Amino acid sequence: MANNSAKQNKEKMIEEEVEDLRRELEHFQQEKERVRTIVGKIGGVPTFNIRLFNIVFIAVMAATLFISLLSSELRLLMIELATVALALKILYMMHCQSKVNHFQLWMQSSIEWRINEIMKLLRKNQRDAESESARRES
Q1: Cα dihedral sign for 91, 92, 95, 101?
Q2: pTM for the complete prediction?
Q3: How confident is the model at residue 35 (pLDDT cuts 50, 70, 90)?
């Protein structure tokens, strides 16, 4: 009778562990999808706006170069326009880099938080195992 009860308890514990693992797997899948969408938002793949911005930038730079070579009266204006366009491009690149840096910081913080969580679980399991072994020795 006691053997049957112990077997049922063991099966129940295994079922609970399997259910916990399923929940963890579902949580992992949700996190993976969330990270995938965040990476896409911060510039993992060039969007239409980024491509359009680059095309306009190249067109403005080519036009200013072409006009400055053809016209001596507009040369200074074209140099100023090219300088402004270049400054805007640099500012845009700095903005994109700051988004990437923020994402990296967020990921590192998330990893650190998760590691701390796992360490707490390990310490708790170790204490439980030590108390269980001390109880068995008594």
Answers
A1: negative
A2: 0.53
A3: confident
